[in-house]
Amino acid sequence: MSIEEKIKAIEEEIQKTPYNKATSHHIGKLKAKISKLKEEQIKRSSGGSKGEGFHIKKSGDATAVLVGFPSVGKSTLLNELTNAESKVGAYQFTTLEIIPGVMEYNNAQIQIFDIPGIITGAAGGKGRGKEILSVARTADLIIVVLDTLNPQHLNVILKELDNVGVRPNQTKPDVKIKKTRKGGVNVSTTVPLTYLDEKTIRSIINEYGIHNADVLFRDD
Questions:
Q1: Which of 38, 70, 114, 183 is the most buried (most CB within 10 A)?
Q2: d(C-alpha 133, C-alpha 75), whole Å
Q3: DSSP-derived secondary structure letter, 88
């Protein structure tokens, strides 16, 4: 069974399982399994690709990635902002590799990548989407470029990013995990937890192969 098939099977199980206090622990474990499988999926895509242009070398003070559907103007924007020469055309999928450029701003060098356009289902592998989106995970800034006639594409792009573990405009939860040599998983909090109980937290931690750790929650 492929990773995609495993994820789909678990998602179907979650949909069929009614959420309540008795099932919350089981659903939490299933979601942890999905998260782990998606991480493995992304690592395979970014590390195993043989395709030209998908291995990038970061430089400068910060990196930004232009993300959008095909033919929305990403290449034109890159060429205007930087010294790059990304091919521009009046047809879809003009950019077939990742084109870097550098913009200087207030004495800082900002590296900008023009990546191939993504399509619905990119996170699942359509159009080499997993490889393309893996580049977005490494960036300091994601710039979503839209066609003004299709503003609904924003939600599609955000969903594809979410499916590979990228959460634009969201603050990472303040959770610290410190591995220890023994003592099991100890959970402490500075705020009340309303979404997870300690049993579920320990199960999620164990799912990642961690059996001894101090876990501190400063966010719900």
A1: 114
A2: 17
A3: -
* CATH class of the domain at 62-163: alpha beta
Q: Is 19 exposed, middle or buried (0-12, 13-18, 19+ CB in 10 A)?
A: exposed
Eight-state DSSP code of residue 95:
-
Coil, strand or helix at 104: strand
Residue boundaries of the structural domains of the chain: 1-48, 62-163, 171-220
pLDDT band at 91 (very low <50, low <70, confident <90, very high): very low
Max Cα–Cα distance, the chain, nearest Å: 62
d(CA 38, CA 36): 5
Q: What is the pLDDT of residues 145-171, one digit of tens each?
A: 999 999 999 999 998 888 777 888 888
φ/ψ bin of 170: left (φ > 0), alpha (ψ from -120 to 50), beta (otherwise): beta
Q: Which two tokens stand for residue 60?
A: 């400068």
